[in-house]
Amino acid sequence: MKNILTFWMIIFPFGLFAQVGMKNMSLKHPDSALLYIGVQNYIEISGLDNYTNLELKSSSGTVYPSEDGKFYLMVRRQGADTVMLFQNRKLIFTKIYKIKFIADPKTQLGYVTEKTATVSQILQNTKLYVVLPGSDYKHPFHIQSFELILINPQNVLINNFEPTRANELN
């Protein structure tokens, strides 16, 4: 059995090579085939033995090499983009990405996703976050200060707090 396995690996050595991969590291889930308009999509290449003489080309965007041997890709229109990886001017990998807009940022109190929150929900979720609804973009936005106003169901002001620095309720 051992001889058959050795013979099999000599004739069919396909299991010994790594597969070339291309990931957008600007995403929460880098394996997604997404690019976002208006931001630098940080593309990382993996699975190569040699990373010299690499060139990345885009069918609808502009590619900028980074100092660490990776690439930034800027796209300007919605639709799809074919990204091609060349090594020594030879095409070695192609991946099709879907291009999307980044949603307008919204604030969210902890894990409260509804428009209104109860006092107990507010006390359990004391931090305010920036979220991009329906977006997989790993954004750098954070809250520097905010104002909190409490209104009851009859739309009467209960309390108007002083502006808060940072993103947590005091």
Topology, element by element:
Blueprint: H1 2-11, E1 21-24, E2 34-36, E3 41-46, E4 54-58, E5 61-65, E6 71-75, E7 79-87, E8 90-100, E9 106-109, H2 119-124, E10 128-131, E11 145-146, E12 149-151, E13 157-160, E14 164-165
Parallel strand pairs: 2-8
Antiparallel strand pairs: 1-3, 3-6, 4-7, 5-6, 7-8, 9-10, 11-14, 12-13
Summarize the structure.
The chain has 2 helices and 14 strands, in the order αβββββββββαβββββ. By secondary structure, it is mainly beta.
How many domains? 2
Largest sheet: 4 strands, antiparallel
What would CATH call the homologous superfamily of the largest domain?
Immunoglobulins
Taken as a percent bin, the fraction of beta residues is 35-45%
Over all CA atoms, what is the radius of gyration?
A: 24 Å
Low-confidence stretches: 13-17
Cα distance spanning the termini: 69 Å
Net shape: elongated
Q: Encode the helix/strand succession as letters.
A: HEEEEEEEEEHEEEEE
Can you characterise this structure?
With 170 residues, this protein is mainly beta. It has two domains: 2-100, Immunoglobulin-like; 106-165, no CATH class. Helix content is 9%, strand content 39%. The protein contains two helices and 14 strands; from the N terminus they run H-E-E-E-E-E-E-E-E-E-H-E-E-E-E-E. The protein has helices spanning 2-11, 119-124, and strands at 21-24, 34-36, 41-46, 54-58, 61-65, 71-75, 79-87, 90-100, 106-109, 128-131, 145-146, 149-151, 157-160, 164-165. The strands form five sheets. It has a four-stranded antiparallel beta sheet with strand order 1-3-6-5, with no helix packed on it. A four-stranded mixed beta sheet has the order 2-8-7-4, with no helix packed on it. The protein has a two-stranded antiparallel ribbon with strand order 9-10. Strand 12 (149-151) and strand 13 (157-160) form a beta hairpin. The chain is elongated and about 70 Å long. Mean pLDDT is 86; it is low at 13-17.
